[in-house]
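Hey team,

Filing this mostly as a record. A colleague (T.K.) asked me to run one chain through the structure pipeline before their review meeting, and I want the input and output archived in the tracker in case anyone asks later how it was produced. No errors, nothing strange. Just documentation.

Input sequence:
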Amino acid sequence: MIAVTVDVRLLAQDDLALLEAAGIDATVAGPLVADPSRHVAIALDGERVVGIAFGVERRGAGDAHELEICDVSVVASHRRQGVGRRLLDALLERGRSLGCREARVEAPRDDVAALRLVRAAGAVDVPEPLVRLALPL
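Output structure:
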């Protein structure tokens, strides 16, 4: 069941205070929203930050343009309500709008919650020492 009171959105530079409210130090939060290759999605329940997700746009040679999903975190009170999926979807949509060909997630094999989240979004395993998952965009 999706928490209907939760608003998920991508942050802009003028949203720095929201990251600080999430407990992220200003010296870390400032560069996150200022760097155009970094993308932050945030979930708000009223004014309370209940989830956050980070992605980094990676440009390589030729067609190697992807979005690396670095973290998706949701507070315990809002887990298993679709908030993490909505955060992930916001980052995936940003990746599509940027022209990324896929999104990548790396997770330890024992991170069951992360693996369940990205596989539910359509990820496929890429054999490597870590479980490497790709989401077509």
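Quick notes for T.K.: The chain has one domain: 6-136. The radius of gyration is 15 Å.
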